[in-house]
C-alpha cells in the first residue's frame, strides 16, 4: 500500500499511475476537497479531466501508516516542514519519499534534509525529474530519478514506484538530484521572462546553457556528482521546464516578462527557491549572475532591460 500526502496535481497524478499495481491512499488536507474527490472520482481543483481509479482511497485524516510500503510527500517545498511538524508522529516507519522541488527559504535545506531533521529515524528519498502531472496521469511515457543515499532502501523503492509508463532510474546522489530539480525551476522563470519579453529563442538557449553552468557550479560545490546534473533530474528537467508552456514556472516568467500579473494561488516553486539560491551562493562565494538577475526580476528590483544590461556587460571570458 502506498500513501500519498498532498492531493495537488503531482500527488494525484502519482496516485493514478501507482494505482495500476498498488492500493493507494491519497490524503488531502481539506476534508471538503477529499469528500469531493472520493465522490466524483476526479480532482477537479488540481488535475481536472482525469478519473481516479477505484483503488485510490481519498481521505482527510492521516491514519497510522505503519503498514505502508512508502509514504510520498507531494506538497510544495515551502510547506514540507509544516506538514512534517504537524503529522510527523503518525508517519514513523516506512520510507518517506519527497516529491517536491526546491530549497527551503528559511534554512537553505533541501527536502530530504528537512525530513532528516524532523524524522531522523525515517529513511528518506526523493523522486524528481522531467514530468508534467497531466502527462503522468494520462499514462504517457515518463522517466524520473529516485535518489536515496542508502541503496538498500533505494532499490526496492525504485521497483515499488515504477509502473508500466513511469520508468525510474536510481541514484545515491541525493544532493545532485535535489539541486537539479530545485535550480531548474529558477532557470525556467528566466526562460519565461526571455520569451515573454520577446528577446528570442537564441537568448533562451543562452540562458538555459549559462543557467545549466550555474546549476552545475552550485551543485558540485555542495557535493553533487556532475553526471547527476547531466541526467534526468538536472539537464532533463531543465529542458522540459524551460521549453514548455505547461510549466507554471515558465508561465510565471512569461507574465513577468510582459509586466502582467500572475495568479498568486498557482504553485511557482522557483520564486522562493531563487531567493534561497542567491543566499546560499553568497554564503558559499559562488558566482551565480543568471540566478541573481532572475531573483532581482522576481523581487521587482530590476526591469528586464536592466537585467539584460547587467548580464551582457559582464567582462568577456572563456566558456
Ligand atoms: N505539477 C507537476 O507537474 C509537478 C510537480 N512537481 C512538484 O510537486 C510539488 C507539489 O506540486 P503540485 O502538486 O503541482 O502543486 P499543486 O499546487 O497542484 O498542489 C499543492 C498541494 O499541496 C497542498 N498543500 C499545500 N500546503 C500544504 C500543507 N501545509 N499541508 C498539506 N498540504 C498542503 C495543497 O492543498 P490545498 O489544495 O488544500 O491548497 C495542494 O493539494 C512541487 O514541489 C512541484 O515542483 C514535480 C513534478 C511535476
Ligand atoms: O517540475 C515540473 C516538470 O518536471 C513541473 O514544472 P512546473 O512546476 O513549472 O509546472
Automatic annotation (TrEMBL):
Positions bound to NADPH: 10, 29, 101, 133, 248, 269
Pathway: Membrane lipid metabolism; glycerophospholipid metabolism
InterPro entries: 6-PGluconate_DH-like_C_sf, 6PGD_dom2, G3P_DH_NAD-dep, G3P_DH_NAD-dep_C, G3P_DH_NAD-dep_N, NAD(P)-bd_dom_sf
Catalytic reactions on record: sn-glycerol 3-phosphate + NAD(+) = dihydroxyacetone phosphate + NADH + H(+); sn-glycerol 3-phosphate + NADP(+) = dihydroxyacetone phosphate + NADPH + H(+)
Cellular compartments per GO CC: cytosol
SUPFAM superfamilies: 6-phosphogluconate dehydrogenase C-terminal domain-like, NAD(P)-binding Rossmann-fold domains
Example GO biological process: glycerophospholipid metabolic process
Binding site for NAD(+): 6-11, 133, 248
EC code: 1.1.1.94
Domain Glycerol-3-phosphate dehydrogenase NAD-dependent N-terminal: 2-152
Molecular-function annotations in GO: glycerol-3-phosphate dehydrogenase (NAD+) activity; glycerol-3-phosphate dehydrogenase (NADP+) activity; NAD binding
Family affiliation: Belongs to the NAD-dependent glycerol-3-phosphate dehydrogenase family.
Biological role: Catalyzes the reduction of the glycolytic intermediate dihydroxyacetone phosphate (DHAP) to sn-glycerol 3-phosphate (G3P), the key precursor for phospholipid synthesis.
NCBIfam families, sorted: PRK00094.1-2 (NF000940), PRK00094.1-4 (NF000942)
HAMAP family named in the record: NAD_Glyc3P_dehydrog
Protein name (Swiss-Prot/TrEMBL): Glycerol-3-phosphate dehydrogenase [NAD(P)+]
Amino acid at each position: 500500500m502506498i500513501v500519498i500526502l498532498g492531493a495537488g496535481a503531482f500527488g494525484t497524478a502519482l496516485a493514478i499511475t501507482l494505482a495500476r499495481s498498488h492500493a493507494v491512499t491519497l490524503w488531502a488536507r481539506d476534508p471538503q476537497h477529499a469528500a469531493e474527490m472520493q465522490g466524483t472520482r476526479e480532482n477537479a481543483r488540481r488535475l481536472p479531466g482525469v478519473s481516479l481509479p477505484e483503488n485510490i482511497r481519498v481521505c482527510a485524516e492521516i491514519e497510522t501508516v505503519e503498514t505502508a510500503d512508502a509514504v510520498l510527500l507531494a506538497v510544495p517545498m515551502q510547506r514540507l516542514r509544516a506538514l512534517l511538524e504537524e503529522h510527523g508522529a503518525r508517519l514513523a516507519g516506512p520510507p518517506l519519499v519527497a516529491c517536491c522541488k526546491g530549497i527551503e527559504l528559511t534554512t537553505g535545506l533541501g527536502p530530504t534534509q528537512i525530513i532528516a531533521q524532523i524524522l531522523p529515524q525515517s529513511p528518506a528519498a526523493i523522486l524528481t525529474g522531467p514530468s508534467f502531472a497531466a502527462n503522468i496521469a494520462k499514462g504517457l511515457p515518463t522517466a524520473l530519478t529516485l535518489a536515496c543515499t542508502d541503496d538498500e532502501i533505494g532499490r526496492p523503492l525504485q521497483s515499488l514506484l515504477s509502473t508500466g509508463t513511469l520508468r525510474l532510474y536510481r541514484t545515491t546522489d541525493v544532493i545532485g538530484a535535489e539541486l537539479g530539480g530545485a535550480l531548474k525551476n529558477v532557470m525556467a522563470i528566466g526562460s519565461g521572462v526571455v520569451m515573454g519579453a520577446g528577446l528570442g529563442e537564441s537568448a533562451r538557449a543562452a540562458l538555459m546553457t549559462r543557467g545549466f553552468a550555474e546549476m552545475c557550479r552550485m551543485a558540485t560545490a555542495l557535493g553533487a556528482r556532475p553526471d547527476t546534473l547531466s541526467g534526468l533530474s538536472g539537464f532533463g528537467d531543465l529542458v522540459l521546464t524551460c521549453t514548455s508552456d505547461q510549466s507554471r514556472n515558465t508561465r510565471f516568467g512569461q507574465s513577468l516578462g510582459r509586466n502582467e500579473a500572475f495568479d498568486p494561488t498557482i504553485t511557482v516553486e522557483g520564486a522562493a527557491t531563487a531567493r534561497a539560491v542567491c543566499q546560499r551562493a553568497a554564503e558559499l562565494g559562488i558566482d551565480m549572475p543568471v540566478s541573481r538577475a532572475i531573483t532581482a526580476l522576481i523581487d521587482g528590483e530590476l526591469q528586464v532591460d536592466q537585467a539584460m544590461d547587467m548580464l551582457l556587460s559582464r567582462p568577456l571570458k572563456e566558456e
